[in-house]
Each structure stands twice: as C-alpha cells, then as structure tokens.
Amino acid sequence: MADSPRTTVLFYIGSMEPGGAERQVLTILQHLDRSRFAPVLCLAHRRGVLLEQMPADVPIESFWDGFAGTARSKLCHLLKVTRYVRCRWLAKCLRRHRADVIYDRTYLATLDAAAAAFLRPTPRISAAVGDPRMQFEVYARFPRWLWRWFSRRSYCTAAVVLANSEGLRKQLIDYWQLPEDQVRTQPNAYDFERIDALASAPVPTPSSGRYGLLTVGRMDEDKGHADLLSAVEDLVKQRGQTDLLWQIIGTGPDEAKLKQAVAQRGLTANVEFLGIQPNPFPYYRSADLFCLPSRSEGLPNVLIEALACGTPVIAADCPSGPREILADGAYGQLVPVRNPTALAEAIARHRESPGVLQAAAIAGRQSVRQRYAVETVIARLESLIDEVVARSQHGG
C-alpha cells in the first residue's frame, strides 16, 4: 500500500521579526511532523533574525521580494491597492504549492489570508494573539464600518479560529460574534530543552551587581512601558533605590518617546535599552525580577519564558493571559492595570522579601513546563489540521 501523501500547510505571517507570534510560528515549523506534513512559509516581508533559525526544508516566499522598489509597487502604492495585490500573490502561492490548508497568525495576516482563500478556496486556521477590540482600533481604516465588516467576515470564514488563552477565546466570540464551537483554545508551544540550553549562555550585558529588573517585548502603548517607567521613577527618586537597573529588550514605535521620557526624568543611569536580542534567555535567568506591565495581552510568551527560567515575575492583571498563566497569582504577583504605584509597591516588596516570589517562580516553572510543552501542544495542532482538511474534503 502506497504511503499517504503529506498534507501541505502554508503558514502566513508578516515577517520573522522576534515577536511572540513569530517565535510561535518558528516553533511550529521546527516541530511539525514531516512524515505527515509539508510546511511552506509565506511572508509579507522577508526580514527578521528568526529566519536564521528556520529549518532548511521549509520553502520561504516573500511578497516584497519581487515587488519592492519596482514601478508597479509605486503605482500600487499611489492607487492604494497594494493589499489587494498582496492577497492575489498569496492566492497564487496557495495554488502553486497546492496547499491543503492555510495557517495565518496575527490580525493583519488573517485579513490577507481570508481574501487569498476566497480567490483560491482553501480551508483556514486563523490564530489570534491579542485583544480583538484593541487590534481593530489600532489598524482600522476608513470607512470603519467596511473595515469592521471585512474583519468579522475574515474570522467567520475560517474553518477554526484559535485563541492562545481562554480569556482571549471569550473576547473573540463576543467581539466578532463568532459561534462558540468555531473558536478553540490552543496554547502557545515551548521547547523547554532548547530554552534551558539558550539560557545557559553568558549574559552579554550583565546588570553588574545591581538590582536587575527586566522587560521583554514590543515598545508600544499596549505594553505599558510608560506605567513601569513611572514606577521606576518612584522607586529611584522617592524610595531611594538608586541601584535599580531596568533592562529593556525589544524595539517598537514608542521607543524614541520612551527614551526621551527616560532622559527627561533623569533616569538614564537606571534604564538600559538593549534592542533586539536574538537570545533573550540569559537575561531572564540573570534578572532579579521580570515585569510585564501590559495593558492588553493574549497569552504573553515572555511571561511563560520568564517562569521557564525560574525568574520571579510581576504582571499587570490585564483582561487576558497573565491571570491564566499565573493561576490567579499562585506563580507570581498580579497588580492592577495602568497603576504605576501598585507596580512600584510590588517591586519594593519583592526587594524586601524576595523569597516569596522566588518560591512562586519555582512552582510556576514546573507548571508551565507541564501545560505548554511543545510535544503536547504541537500534537494538538496536528490533530486539528487533520480534522480541518478531512472536513474540507468531505464538504464540511
């Protein structure tokens, strides 16, 4: 009996910059069973340091490779039809690779994939990673009613919508008015053996004996860096904790504004911008405390990564993610959202009694390794892909 043909899965995302969604796509591509699945990666932009870690057997295509700088691209930009052209390109990729299913991750990728799958009918698995209301507010164009209609249709036409936390699942159902059985909780996957190996490397920029506070993530309004900066100012100037060093890994649209605010408040000796770090895990391991001041999240990778390294954590209790990961505060401290005073008090308490959060982090390390192990999560995804393809083949 001949072997069954492999299922071709086309993964689509904007780029492979080192964000949480991008790291999850990389993890899936590294661990997907090649005896059953043939993955293809399509990107809007071929960029990002995570490309260096991509498995050699994964074909990669990028919309901008043959488009950027051409007369056609300039004309499309002038006519404001670049998105339409990109969706047609993606539809051609689906056809050329004879994709059985498309997996899109992030809000904008879902919009592109929905249009492409309309042009070349293909069942879709759409993975959402953030608060749908906030993402709509950030990305919506005029007329907003039309953008909202198209956004909702993009999710409604997916075979399955994935949420990386139970809280996000409820938000997606409520905001986009989706059937409950269409939206499933699929947690992020982590290769903890790999994390342990990476964490054992030396820290490129150590805190040099100072109290090390760490954040990792994109610098934008949702991530709450402004709230933590106010807390750091309180700790340094009002509570005399001048040895505090806040190390920030990441970049983003608010980076220049944040650097300016640091300088204006006289905190340049207490805040260090480290930019993108291909391997952030030694920083997690060496930090005295990891802080997640986010105002909105799905399932924050960085919080799980910090716990995986045994680092004590404090997180803002935003609507989705941190409370679920920290088991209502059993594995780290939750503080109110947008509350610099609460952040400062939590950090100060940890300095006075570090053993409390350290013990919670040890328990949290074991918990996340059980709940988010790559073998378990990828097996669930593989079963889901099989289900979606079988349903499509039988006209479901």
TrEMBL record:
The keyword Transferase applies. GO terms for molecular function: glycosyltransferase activity. Residues 211-354 form the Glycosyl transferase family domain. Keywords: Glycosyltransferase, Transferase. InterPro entries: Glyco_trans_1, Glyco_trans_4-like_N. Residues 18-194 form the Glycosyltransferase subfamily 4-like N-terminal domain. The keyword Transferase applies. SUPFAM superfamilies: UDP-Glycosyltransferase/glycogen phosphorylase. This is Glycosyltransferase.
